[in-house]
């Protein structure tokens, strides 16, 4: 008989698994389970459903010694765990009443009816812990075993004669306790499939989070300082996820928030402050369970808050906070989603900061170049013009216009990249003044390949030309400067050469090593080129007693378009 009893219980468990599977496919039941059966209608429906499950278990039970070996505990215990006290007690009353009426006056009718009430009550007691995810499969097994052991005790206390009750317990206790405990774990696991499916769908949303990031990240290029961009990023996350609310904060206040009516709770300072405090340790925090006196309780009663820190340069600068509906099942998807999205946001914030710093550095370099207008050059130029005024007024006027053009371009131009011909025009203004000073002792040759129109950093040539004029005189004081621009494969080579004594070896060594040398012109140009084109693309220098040649390479025009206007 024991084998037949185990087989009967196994068939009953299989039937209940089938029922559970069918229940998870019914949209109404599915929604009620996911929503936590908050409404009275949902609670009533779940009561009837699980009560019906217990009735089916009674009908499909195995008769043994005037008793019914059954899986009724699974229906009423599941009702209490999943639905709470009202559902649990309601289903147990249905199942218990039916059990009593099913076998009125039977040997175990009253004791089994009362034990059914007791099993529903046990499920109700553990409901809150179960819904909060604190009870796993092992816990479910032992709770069910406890409930069935309680049934055996009630049978011994109520059923008479005692000898028959004792004989029945010896026969059914072990198979019912073990099989129902195992069956309960399987039944709950089957119902949990609805949440596994829900998690899978959410995991799909996480994959879509790359799309969310792609849409959101452009709004983070200005950091956390643009209210409009923060609102846009929050809106994108909120509309793309199942979150009840989404909030982006700095370390002190809310920058943007989007959500349903629960948003008003998050705006409260008493609610917001714990969230802001939680990000100080740079770890994500889940707010799920608090005492009733806690300010967060009204929110966390039905929701869970996930706060992931936004980190920039190893310091928390804010948080990405999401509020989601609380379910009885345990899921890490919401936490993982928030954490990974926050990491992407943090990376973009660091990149935006680096970009901002790079822009500041470029502006500083630019201003440094502008401030490098040699006062000695201005003094010499004015002296030269003064001298020319006595000899040739028209030539003096031309030189004044050249000086004006040179300084206007130097001091007013705010473009970081210029066309090669624009840059050469600036250099030409400078050379006009130097030619007036040195007269026939200065010879300049400009050779630009036909059709060449590449982009170069603004004011990159003038320091090289100035250096060649200043230090490139031969023994007779003659200065010969050659400026050339030509194509070299996919690059453009721009060079400035002279026929002077060359550049001292130590000066070249220090320059290429980044060690400060006298004057800042060549060093500034070298550093600017490396910052724009990479460490390997600074100045190149050839030097001999017959002269020096300084050159650099820039990409072809098509590769350079993105640098315009920066």
From TrEMBL:
One GO CC term on file: plasma membrane
Domain Histidine kinase: 460-558
Main subcellular location: membrane
Subcellular location: Cell membrane
GO MF annotations, alphabetized: ATP binding; phosphorelay sensor kinase activity
One GO BP: cell wall organization
InterPro entries: Bact_2-comp_sensor_kinase (IPR050640), HATPase_C_sf (IPR036890), HATPase_dom (IPR003594), His_kinase_dom (IPR005467), Sig_transdc_His_kin_internal (IPR010559), Sig_transdc_His_kinase_LytS_TM (IPR011620)
Bilayer-crossing regions: 6-23, 44-62, 68-88, 100-126, 138-159, 171-196
SUPFAM superfamilies found in the cross-reference section: ATPase domain of HSP90 chaperone/DNA topoisomerase II/histidine kinase
Swiss-Prot/TrEMBL keywords: ATP-binding, Cell membrane, Kinase, Membrane, Nucleotide-binding, Transferase, Transmembrane, Transmembrane helix, Two-component regulatory system
Keyword hit for Transferase: yes
Coiled-coil ranges per UniProt: none
Name of this protein: Sensor histidine kinase
